[in-house]
Amino acid sequence: MKKFFTIVILTIGFCNTSKAEEMGYEFSGLVSTSVWDKYLLFQVPVVVSDQPSLQSLLVINLPHGFNASIWSSEDLGGTSAGDEIDLNLGWAHKILGFNFNTGVGIWNVNPTASVWDDIVTAHVTFGKDFVVWDEVATSWYIQPRYYHTSNNFLGNGWNISTGINARFPVADKVSVDVNPFMSYDDGFGVTPGLYFGSNLTLNLELNDTTTLFFSTRALTGQGNSEIAGGVGISMKF
User: Fold this and answer.
1) In terms of Cα–Cα distance, which of 119, 125, 89 is closest to 104?
2) What's CA 45's distance to the chain center, in Å?
3) Mean pLDDT per 10-residue run, the chain (237 residues)?
4) For residues 136 and 166, is the Cβ–Cβ distance under 8 A?
5) Which of 53, 69, 130, 170 has its C-alpha lying 20 to 30 A from 223's C-alpha?
6) How much is the pTM?
7) CATH number at residue 226
8) Using an 8 Å Cβ cutoff, are 225 and 17 in contact?
9) H or E, element range at 161
10) Which domain holds residue 159?
11) Structural domain count, the chain
């Protein structure tokens, strides 16, 4: 059952791509899979499972700025603590030189549990691209997000985050992505307050579409600190 979710994510994009090309649609996307030493949340230092986790992502960029994605986590430690499936639908556009995107999602915390504890979420993101030094692509963003839980197991809540994404070329086909950020959470499953974090990724481009990557995520705030590491591969189409 657990392997089924990853197989779906790694195949559905290519199946839909072939069908869409036959119908004359033009779009792009990304599929990736990675293994992490634990399932650490993305913005706050909360470990969902301290067992290794297989995390997979499928993103499809649709016409007119729309996009859809599926993200999954599978606990590799013999339990279902780290199992999750997230479904997202969004829209992105340039407005007066700024990046704008908005989206909604249904995040299923544990799809193998007897009761599905869904999180319904919505966000709006504003950002701006710029260049620092030579060939260092950089962007700034700010994102408020709202959460609602279907069974009230975490209640409702919101947070706001801001950060910078930067890609530093190191050598031919080699680059490093740096993403420092901070967020304020009103207490959605965590202690209310400020949190700080950083993602660091080493990218090795195997060809024009495929990249091998090594990532770390460090998070701290409200007396807690956590770090996680992962290795994976991504393919553009």
Assistant:
1) 89
2) 16
3) 51 51 69 97 95 96 94 90 93 95 90 68 96 86 93 81 96 97 94 97 97 98 97 96
4) yes
5) 53
6) 0.87
7) 2.40.160.40
8) no
9) strand 156-171
10) 2-236
11) 1
